[in-house]
């Protein structure tokens, strides 16, 4: 029977959790983000067989999120996108596109607050 788990973790727990999942033969399925009242909700989704595991982080202004690209190399695209579009401070991305993944005229367009001149 398929099972889905959501684990809410702190930013500093991400690498350890990701490494445990990698060592247990889980694959990274997606990393998604959404604005929530107290920051940016980031969901790292993994699966193995019929098991689906989500690691959920609330990235608050000033938080530093360490990239998991050293564990799951293909995460760099998700992480560059989230960094550029939402303004989440993700460090250690390899390769880091330095906010040049997209040609956009607005800085962090998905993190624009009411009253901002971001669009």
From TrEMBL:
Signal peptide: none annotated. Residues 8-96 form the NADH:ubiquinone oxidoreductase 30kDa subunit domain. This is Energy-conserving hydrogenase. Pfam families: Complex1_30kDa. The lineage of its organism: Bacteria, Bacillati, Bacillota, Clostridia, Eubacteriales. Gene3D superfamilies: NADH:ubiquinone oxidoreductase, 30kDa subunit. One of its GO terms (molecular function) is NADH dehydrogenase (ubiquinone) activity.
